Amino acid sequence: MPSRYTRNLKRALTLAAVLAVTPAAAETIVEANVKLIEPYGVVPVARIPEGVYLRSVDDPDDIIWERLPEYRVTLYPAPPVHDSVFLRHDPDLPPRDVIFAVARTDGRFYVRLRWRDGSDDSLRTRDRFVDSVAVQFSMGDDTTSYMMGTGPEEPVNIWYWAADSNAAQSLGAGGPGSTTLLDSQPVTADSRYVPSDTPEAGQWVVVMSRPLSEADLNQVNFDRDELAIAFALWQGENDERDGLKSVSDGWILVDQTSAQVPQ
Q: Closest Cα to residue 104, out of 140, 62, 139, 52?
């Protein structure tokens, strides 16, 4: 097990690499009752009371979401890890905010995400790309690299949603460029694009979830006190795909020992 000094040094070096290729200014979303969470901050999982059910499995508009706490995390343009990404990398793109909620019932784990997007990019063609979002789970703890895992010995599980299919995929990775579609696909999703008269105020809302019991060698196990999660976002309008994306600059820690029950 790495020492705390080694872990913190590793985090600092990786964060420095990310910030070295990103601008200082950020496009932020400031809303009342939405708390900004810094890298390695801790949020409690919300507990959906027994007997309370969403109108559909992943309903993004269910009234329950109004009763659960939301958090804001800032995503930065991903550092180019391949030559092909470097050619398309735009260091002038500002960081972007994603607002998220994490919740669970006795049988299911949920992640709800929303972010501002001035266009609904849900049609994929040869030269058009779609809006996408992903939630990454460490299969171990927060010593695993949040940049797609630390090799096969410290992998990650990724829930990936794309606007053209309105469906989620469960992926595995053990480092940049190693993303693999898993044999088992227990993750489900639903979404809604909310247009606005002011284009920059348009918004995607996405819910992804999975039965707690569907854990195996490659799917994250929710039977633990703390989860390490991270996020990635692709803007289709900017031709973002693959490694061209915005990402968390560290893990967010989800505390499952002090679950909040909505009133």
A: 52
How many other CB atoms are found less than 10 A from the CB of residue 54?
20
Tell me how far apart the alpha carbons of residues 90 and 92 are, in angstroms, rounded to a whole number: 5
**Beta pairing partners, 133:** 161, 233
Residue with tokens 């993004």: 60
Mean pLDDT of 208-222: 94
Place of tokens 């409690």: 44
As a whole number, mean pLDDT of residues 52-81 equals 92
Residues in the chain: 263
β-bridge mates for residue 35, sequence order? 71
- Dihedral, 235, 236, 240, 241 alpha carbons, nearest 10: 110
Cα(224)–Cα(109) distance, integer angstroms: 13
**By C-alpha distance, which of 245, 186, 236 is closest to 210?**
186
In this predicted model, which residue has the larger pLDDT, 66 or 1?
Answer: 66
The band of 7, judged by pLDDT with boundaries at 50, 70 and 90, is very low
Backbone φ/ψ region at 11: left (φ over 0), alpha (ψ -120 to 50), beta: alpha
Q: Residue 87: in which H helix or E strand, if any? A: helix 83-88
Which range, 78-92, 96-110, 114-128, is most confident? 96-110
